[in-house]
Specification:
The complex is a heterodimer of chains A (114) and B (118). With 114 residues, chain A is mainly β. Helix content of chain A is 0%, strand content 51%. Chain A is built from no helices and eleven strands. In chain B, strand 6 and strand 7 form a beta hairpin. The chains are: A mainly beta (114), B mainly beta (118). At the A-B interface, strand 5, strand 9 and strand 10 of A face strand 5 of B.
């Protein structure tokens, strides 16, 4: 089945220690998104890639970076995680960037910061 | 700009009862609206979406939603709740800016947790 895969499902890191979260997709979609979802809150878009074009949300902290080496993979790098960065990180894909396109979500990576 | 408001952070129904989850939107351009479901420790799954065709939209798992422009609402309903419907439900609107652009970003409501009692 075509899908969006996130690894790892659970990640524990220490305060200030860089961490990388991974997302891969077999849907061959052009767009890949990263959302942050804190406990009992709505998912909040951090940034997205349209093909190789990176689009950062205005209020995304500089501490968060992303890489998309090819169509299938996208990474979220947190350079110096703080306690406030503990959250579920959701990767999503869509065929195009049309407002009517469905976004397909991965299962998420739950990040704990000690 | 667009936004959605979900009324009620928690809703509890008995198995077999009607499910009604409320969502109101605000948009300066015709909105595109979505309902997603999230089971514990899982990602979001699309239930249904409204993209300006039929105002009554049928989705998966027996859910449907009706777009009512006069009420700026897009409430989600299911005639008979099942235990497996217990999850968190998110209403979302596509971010189309102030001029109806096509950016693809989703703006989510805060979610409603649905509990189903036996």
């Amino acid at each position: 089945d075509a899908m969006v895969i996130q690894n790892p499902r659970y990640q524990v890191t220490q305060f200030g220690k860089p961490v990388t979260l991974s997302c891969s997709q077999t849907l061959n979609h052009n767009v890949m998104y990263w959302y942050q979802q804190k406990s009992s809150q709505a998912p909040k878009l951090l940034f997205h890639y349209y093909d190789k074009d990176f689009n950062n949300e205005a209020d995304t902290p500089d501490n968060f970076q992303s890489r998309r080496p090819n169509t299938s993979f996208c990474f979220l790098d947190i350079r110096s995680p703080g306690l406030g960065d503990a959250a579920m990180y959701l990767c999503a894909t869509s065929r195009d960037r049309s407002s009517t396109d469905t976004q397909y979500f991965g299962p998420g990576t739950r990040l704990t910061v000690l | 700009a667009q936004s959605v408001t979900q009324l009620g952070s928690h809703v509890s129904v008995s198995e077999g009862a009607l499910v009604l989850l409320r969502c109101n939107y605000s948009s300066s351009v015709p909105p595109y609206l979505f309902w997603y479901v999230q089971y514990p420790n899982q990602g979001l799954q699309l239930l249904l979406k409204y993209t300006s065709a039929a105002t009554l939209v049928k989705g998966i798992n027996g859910f449907e939603a009706e777009f009512k422009k006069s009420e700026t609402s897009f409430h989600l309903t299911k005639p008979s709740a099942h235990m497996s419907d217990a999850a968190e439900y998110f209403c979302a609107v596509s971010d189309r800016g102030n001029y109806g652009g096509s950016q693809g970003n989703l703006i989510f409501g805060k979610g409603t947790k649905l509990s189903v009692k036996p």
